[in-house]
Design goal:
Chain lengths: ~140, ~850
Amino acid sequence: MTNDLHVTFRVGTASYAVPAAQVLHLESFENATLVPGAPAYVAGLVQVRGRVVPVVDLRVRFGLPPVERTIDNRVLVVQVGTRVAGLLVDSAREVLRIDETSFEKPPEMIERQSAGFVTAVATVTKRLFLLVDVPRLIGEELAHG
Amino acid sequence: MANDKRTEPRNGEITGMHRTDDAARVLQQTGEHAVEIARAAQRLAESGVHQSLASDTASAALEDIAHSLDQTATATEQLARSQQEVATSARDTLQALDTSAADLQQLALSVATVRTDCELLARGSESTATVLEESARSLKSTAANASELTETTVRLVAAVTETSKSVADTAARGMETATTIEEVATTVEEMAAGSARLATDSRQVGEKVINIAAGFKSLVGALEIVASDTTETASSIEQTSATAEELARSFRGVSDLAGTLEEAATTSASNLAEVAASVEEVAATAEKMATVVDGNAVAIEALARSAQRVAQSGGEVSTLASSSAAAAMQLEAVTRKIGGVVEQTRTTSARVAGSARAGGITVGRSIGGLIKIRQAMIDGAGVMKDVGRRAEEIGDMVQAINLIADRTNLLSLNASIEAARAGEHGRGFAVIAEEVRALADRAAAAATDVAKIVRGLQLAARDALTSSAEGLRLADEGAALSEEARGGLQTILEGVELLDGSIQNISMASEEQARAVQTVSSTTARLEIESRTIARASSEQTQATQNLARAAGELRSMGKQTRDATSEQARALRELVKGNTQLTATAEKVTRATEEQATGAAELARGAVQMRGATLRTATALTEQIRGVAQMSTSVQEISGATQRMVAGIAEQANGSAEIARAMDGARKHAVQNARAIAEQAMVAKELEAGIRDVSRLSADITVATAEHASGVTSLVKDADEVRRIAKQTARTVGEQAEALSVLAGSVSKQTVSLQGLARITGDQATATAEVNQAMHVVRGRTREIATALAAQAKSAAAGVVDVATVAREVASLQATTNQQVEAMSSRLDGAGEPPA
């Protein structure tokens, strides 16, 4: 049951979901200290619960134009292995139980377009959620960094 | 003796006693009487003796008387004879005196006739002089009247000039008013439409006024008829009175004639020569006078003709003055019409002013409302701003709520994640976290809703603010427009006030004009009156001159008569005995005077008839007048009806600016009418002026004619004075003659009377003497008879003496017998006290 829990969030017009097991906690986004030389999708470094965490701006990552920050901006603190990183989203307001069976393979065009970040799609009460690949979102670049 | 027998004892003793006493007493008395009788018989006898003696003496005396009576009768007869002679001679003298007195009386009659004629002549010349003086006075007054007329005319001309000046002024003011009205009309063009009804009513009023004027005119005509009738009546009365006076004079003449006749009979013969001389003088004077009188008559006839001409021109003046008066009346009517039009215009303008004022008040009210609206809008804007501020605050709060909801959402999510991580243990916690999240989301949604509402509210407030500002702007604009409207109305009001001022000026000018016209009218009326006076005076003058001419004719005839009479008198003097014809002439004169009286009476009757006719006409005219007045009253009632209708129309008119606009048009029309009326007035004034100039010219002519007249009359008066003087002189001389003659006649008649008395007395004396003579004869016879009777008496007296002696004797015996009886009775009484059987 625990594995069904997903944290949902929005970037642009679409809604996304990540398994709650991969999320340590959610934070509101205040400011980020810019890291020189870092890729453009890295918004900077933030201090969360006594740790310095790099934050990836999913808007930039998904190739969407930047917008003004609002009160709804959230930082999802995720852990992949030992690595902790923050995902900056437009908003994250729900924790939903999405059954494993609800996920389907995304259409090929979406898979190709989203550069492999979307691993599956699920429809919950007529709402469409894209399941994103967290390691891949923070994966190689941060590993390099 | 007889007494005893009568004393019969019928009752008791006492009664018998009494009777006896009485008888005794009577017997005693009888005795006494007998004694007295005896004494008387004694005396009678003595007197009879005396009487016979006296009778003898008387018969002797009577014889003497008869003798002397015889002598007296002889003397009386002689006296009677001589008296008869005296009477005869006195009768002869009387006859002679009678003849002379008759002659003198005839002469006196003739002289008296002459005197009467002279006096008549004097009176005639006196009256002529009086008439001439009157004429002169009348002419003088006519001249004064004419000069007054001229003066009045000058004044009238001045008044007319003033009037035309005033008319011009009024015209100028009318132009000004027209301009003002134009201005006002352009300001309130629409105000010019509505007073058609007013105009109609005004026209009706005008018609009524014309009706009234017609009524007045007819009234004036009737009054004029009454005036002329009154004049006729007056003249007729005057004629009547003149006739009456003439009658009175004639009567007086008759009485004078009688007086003169009486007086003439008392003139003395010693004045005859004087009379003859003065008669000659009188004849000469009469000749002279006749000549003068002839000249006077000619002059008077010329004067009469001239007076007639004057009267004619006076009549012309009167006619002109009448037409002037009519023109003045017309002028007055026009002026009154103008006054009415002006009044209407003033009313209209007042109405316009009232409407403008009302509009001003309305505009002021709307301005006040706009100001209030503005204030309200400002207030509303403040409120809106407040609302906006509050909405912002609400937005802040909503943001705070959002923030809190956001945080709560975050915390609940984290809690959910933590609970999931805790596995089975965190299960309940996860539920709570989920509920918290839902609450937080709901709160966030509500806050979002609130934020949305607040945003809408803010928008609405902003919109309200904007529209409020717009409203404010509009209100300001409205206020400005209202101010402008108020300004416009103020301009209208000013214009109307200006108009009102102009109208007042016109009204004032009209009033002035009316006053001037009234002055003209009154002056014209005065002129008319004066010209009428002049006409009347002229006609009087004409009449007077005609009278004068008549008097002159009479005078002429009288002069001729005088002349004739004088010559006749001369002839009479020469043929003193044949003077009877004069008496006849006098009788004829008396007859003529009586005829004159009769004529005068007839004239009097005719005058009375005329008077009656005039009175009847006056009554008719008065009836007409009354009818005219009734018409007038009807017209006035119609006017009142029209006025009421007009008032109703005016009330209707007070409805709105559109009708006011029409009224303004009416006012404009009125102004045009005004101008036209003023032009008319000016024309009438011109006519009036021309007429008055004619009057002035004519009055100047009259003045000149009157002056000529006056000079002619003055010379006439002088002549008349001379005539009067001569006539007076003649009258005086003739009077003196008459007086002398009357004294003569008086002396003769006195003489006659005394002679007559003498004759009568002498006759009487003769008669008396004859009577005395006769009586003497009778007395003588009677005396003789008496003497005879006395002798017889003496004889019988002697016989009586004897008889008386016998009586005395018998009485003495009677006495003795009585004494015896007395004694017997007393003894019986003393003895038994019984009554005698």
